[in-house]
Specification:
3 helices; 3-stranded mixed beta sheet; alpha/beta; about 140 residues; 5-stranded mixed beta sheet
Length: about 140
């Protein structure tokens, strides 16, 4: 699996400089599941902490997506959409559970704000991207 990730220019050029210098990008990856006990609705977020770059990226993924294999990522920016910075990682297997009652969108908003605040307090930039197919994103809409 390969995931392309859009970064702002500053973060892209920093990641690019690490790559060009063949410096290892330290990372930690885990899964966060958001749901409640009352209904079976759950949201799955893959979180990749790019510790060397003080950057964390969360990806909302389909519940059925297998996240046990190594993943290849590419980081691009508006200035260089044609040249990605390659990165490979594997998730730790850790699953953090967050309980929240509401529809999927409310669960995503709650989890996103919680993660953003957690990392912001550590001086780390957080961004969240939705990788689910459009049909899965619109389940809660009439």
């Amino acid at each position: 699996m390969k995931i392309m990730c859009w970064l702002d220019s500053e973060d892209y050029w920093y990641m690019n400089s690490l790559s060009e210098q063949n410096k290892e990008i330290n990372y930690y990856g885990y899964v966060m599941e958001v749901g409640d006990e009352e209904d079976s609705s759950r949201v799955k977020i893959m979180v990749i902490e790019l510790q060397s770059a003080k950057l964390v990226v969360g990806f909302i993924v389909p519940l059925s997506m297998d996240l046990s294999a190594e993943m290849d990522m590419g980081f691009i920016s508006q200035e260089r959409p044609d040249k990605d910075v390659p990165f490979s990682c594997k998730l730790s297997g850790e699953v953090k559970n967050l309980t929240y009652t509401g529809d999927d969108l409310q669960k995503i908003e709650y989890a996103g704000l919680s993660l953003e605040k957690f990392y912001q307090n550590k001086g780390i930039k957080f961004s969240l991207m939705d990788l689910r197919p459009i049909s899965e994103r619109n389940q809660d809409k009439p």
